[in-house]
Amino acid sequence: MSPTLQRLRALIVKEFGQIRRDRRLVMSLIVPPVLQLTLFGFALSATVSNLRLGVVDESQTPESRELVATLTQSRSFRLGGYYPTADHLGTAISEAKLDAGVVIPYQYARDLQRGRTTTVQFLLNATNANTATIGQAYAEGVLANYNATLRRAGVTASVEDLASGPARRRAEVHLMPAFLYNPGLVDSWFVATGVFGLLLILNSSLISSAAMVRERETGTIEQLLMSPASTGEIIVAKIAPLFVLLCLMMLLAVAVLKAVFRVPFHGSLLFVLFGGVLCILSGISLGTVIATLSRSAQQAQLTAFFINPPLSSLSGALNPVEAMPAWLQPLTVLNPIHHFATIVRGSMLKGTGLATLWPNVLALLIFTLVLVLLSIWRFRKQLS
Amino acid sequence: MLPLVLLVLLSAGLSLRVDDLPIVVQDFSASPASREFVDAFGTSRSLRVVAWPVNGPPEDALRAGVARAVLIIPAHFARDIARGIDTAVQLLVDASDANTAKLTAGYAGQITRAYNQRAATDERPRAGVHAAIRLWYNPGLSSKKFYGPGIFVLGISMFPPLLAALAMARESEQKTILQVYVSSISAHEFLLGKILAFTAVALAECVLMLIALFTYFELRFAGDPTPFIAATLLYAFCVASFGTMVGGTIPSQVGAMQAVALGGFLLVFLLSGLIFPVENIPAALRWISNFIWGRYYIEIVRDALLQGGGWPAVWPKVAIIAIIGAIFYTVAWRGMRRMQLES
After folding, report:
1. Which of B93, B97, B110 sits opposite A178 (nearest CB)?
2. Which of A18, A80, A129, B84 has the fewest CB atoms within 10 Å, counting from its CB?
C-alpha cells in the first residue's frame, strides 16, 4: 500500500470515529429525513376542501333547498349553518366562522318556475387568494352542473319547449379535464419531492460545516497540519465519510418517499440518485465554505441562517416558480435545489429521462463543480 | 434588515396562486369556430397559449415543462357546433403539482363556461341559476396580502426569541449567571430586565416589518387597530419569554439556537396556519396547533389587516396569547428561582 493510501485510510478511520462519537451529528443524519419529510409533506397541504358555507335562504322552497343540498354535497363545501339575514352572514364571515356564504333571494323559486334567470349571491373570504380561486371555480362548476340538470328537466317537462327547442338550442362545449401523472391530485407528492431536494442540500451543508468547524474550535487543526498528510488528503478524508453517510441518508429519504407518501417511481431511480449525489456534493462544499468563513460552530450556524432562507424559498421546492414575483423568477436558475426538484419530479412523477432534463443535470453539474472548487480553494487558503 | 429580506423572499417562496399559466392548444378542427374558442383562452389573463407543433405528441409539452396543460380540440368540433350538438374538448393537465393543476382546470372551466354563455346570450333567455360571486377582503386575489401577515408573524416568532435565547445561554456558558445568583438581584428583576429588553427588540422589528407590509404588501388596517396593538405588545412579551425560557434551560448557545429554531420556526411555520390552513394538517398532528402561540397571533393580524372584525372577533385569542406568555414567564422564573441561593 502506498503511503498516500495508508495515510488516507488512517484519516478516514479517524473521521468515522469522530462522527460516531458526536451524538448530535448522528441524530441529524437520521431525524431530519424522517421528521422533516413527513412533517412538511403532511402539514404543507394546500388542499381546498370542506369550506364552511353559510346559507341565507330567503326563498325557503324545495328548489332553494335543492340548491343548498347540491352545493354542500360536494366535497368542496360543507354546511356551516343557516343565517337569517345577509348581514348576519357577513358578520360570521368577518369573524372567520365561515369561509363562504350564499344568499338565495326571495324570488328564487318563482323565477325558476317561470323560466327566468335568477341570481344568487355567493360570498367568498378571499384572504387566502389560492383557496378563494379554487373555491370560486368549485362553486361555478357546481352551479353549471346544476343548471345543466335543470335544463334537461325543463326540456322534458315542457312539450312546447321540445317542439321548438332543438333547432334553437345552441350547442355547448364540454371541457373534459384529465389529470396526468397524479390523477388523485395528491398534494404531498409535490411538497415531498421538493423537500427531498431541500433536505439533501441544507442538511449536507449543516452537517459538513459542523464537522469542519469542530476541528478548528478544538484547535486540533494545527495537529492535522503538522502531520505528514497533504492538504488534499485531509480534504478527501474529511469529505469521504460524510459523503458516504449522507448518501445513506438519501436512501433513507427515498424510502420515506416510497413508503410514507407512496410517490410513484416512473423514471429511473439511478438517475434521481445521481442528481442526489451531485446535490450532496454541492451541499458539503457549501458547508465547507461556510465553515471556513466562521470561527465557531455558533457562527457557522448563524451564517447558515442567512443563507438557507433565500436558498430554500427561491427554489420552487414548495411552490410553483410562476407564483413568484417576476423579478425574482430568474434567480431560480441559479439555485441547485430548483434544478434537483425539476429532475426528481420529472423523473419520478412523469417518467422523463435525460433527453428532456439534460439542461437541469448540466446546471447541477456546473454548480457542483464550482462549489467543490470554491470550497477546496477556501480550505487550502485557510490551511496555509 | 434580515427580517425585511426574509419577508420578501419567503412570500415569494410560498405563494401558491398562479396567473398566466402556459397552455398548449392542439386544434385538429382548424376552423373559424375552433379558432374563436381558442381565442377565448388566448385573451384570458389566467392562461397563456404557447406555440407547439401540431404533429408532436401533446404529452411531450408537459414532460418538457413547456406547458401546464394541453387543450385538444377534436376534428369534428366545428361540425358539431354547426349542427347544434354538444361537443367535448379534452384538457390534459400536468398534475405533478396538484394545486396548480386544480387552478389550471378551474381557469379552463371558467373560460369554457364564459364562452358557452356568450354564445347563448343572443338566444331567448333560459332558466338557470346565475352566481354573483363576491370576493371579500382581497378582491384582487393578491397572494401577497395573505402571505405578508404570515411571514410577519414568522419573523417575530423567530428572531427575537433567538436573540433572547442566545443572550441567556451566553450567561450560563460564560458563567456570568453565577454573578447574578450571588448578587442581590431577584429572579423577577433579572428575568424582566432580559425579557423587556428583547420585547423592545421584537417591537422594533415589528415596526420595521409593518412598514414593509404597508408598502410592498399594500396592506392597510381594515378596522379597529387596538386589538392588533394590544396583541402585538403581548406577543412580543410572549416570544421574548419563550427565548429566555429556552436560553435559561439549555446552557449552551448552539443547543439553545437549535431549540428555538425548532420551536420558533418549525412549529410556528408548519403548525399555526401561517401558510396552509390548519384544517389540512392530519388530525394526528392537528391538536398540537392549539398550543402554538403563533396560531392565535396570525389570526389577530389577519383580522386587523384584512377582515376588520375588531375586538368581538379576536378577544379570546388576545387572552390566550397573554396566558401562553405568562406560562413561559413562569417556567423561566421557576428555573431561575431554584438555582438562586437562599438568602
Report:
1. B93
2. B84
